[in-house]
C-alpha cells in the first residue's frame, strides 16, 4: 500500500492513451495551455493601472502602437 512504482504509472498511462487516443490528449493539452496563458494575460491586464487608479488602456496586438515625438525645446520656450 505504499507509493506507486514506475510500472504502475506506465500501465495507467497506457490505459488512458487507449481510452482517449493520442489526438484527443494532444488537443486537451493545447486547450489547457491556452487557458493557462489566457488566465495569466488576464491577471497581468488586471493589475496594470495608471496613477489615478483607472485601468490602463488595452492595446490590440494586431495594431502597431503610434510613436509620439515630443519637442522638449518647444515646451520650454512657452
From TrEMBL:
Subcellular location as annotated: Cell membrane
Biased composition (Basic and acidic residues): 63-78
Keyword Protein transport on entry: yes
Membrane topology, as annotated: Single-pass membrane protein
Keywords: Cell inner membrane, Cell membrane, Membrane, Protein transport, Translocation, Transmembrane, Transmembrane helix, Transport
Major localization listed first in the record, in broad terms: membrane
InterPro entries to which the protein is assigned, alphabetical: TatA/B/E, TatA/E
Gene Ontology BP term (one): protein transport by the Tat complex
GO (cellular component) term, any one: TAT protein transport complex
Transmembrane segments: 6-22
Region (Disordered): 44-78
GO molecular function terms attached to this record: protein transmembrane transporter activity
Similarity comment: family membership: Belongs to the TatA/E family.
Function as written in the Swiss-Prot or TrEMBL entry: Part of the twin-arginine translocation (Tat) system that transports large folded proteins containing a characteristic twin-arginine motif in their signal peptide across membranes. TatA could form the protein-conducting channel of the Tat system.
NCBIfam families (alphabetical): PRK02958.1, tatAE
Complex and partners: The Tat system comprises two distinct complexes: a TatABC complex, containing multiple copies of TatA, TatB and TatC subunits, and a separate TatA complex, containing only TatA subunits. Substrates initially bind to the TatABC complex, which probably triggers association of the separate TatA complex to form the active translocon.
Protein name, UniProt field: Sec-independent protein translocase protein TatA
This protein's encoding gene: tatA
Amino acid at each position: 500500500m505504499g507509493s506507486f512504482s514506475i510500472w504502475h504509472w506506465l500501465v495507467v498511462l497506457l490505459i488512458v492513451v487507449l481510452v482517449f487516443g493520442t489526438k484527443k490528449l494532444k488537443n486537451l493539452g493545447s486547450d489547457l495551455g491556452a487557458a493557462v496563458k489566457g488566465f495569466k494575460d488576464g491577471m497581468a491586464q488586471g493589475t496594470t493601472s495608471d496613477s489615478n487608479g483607472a485601468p490602463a488602456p488595452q492595446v490590440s496586438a494586431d495594431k502597431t502602437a503610434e510613436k509620439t515625438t515630443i519637442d522638449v525645446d518647444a515646451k520650454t520656450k512657452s
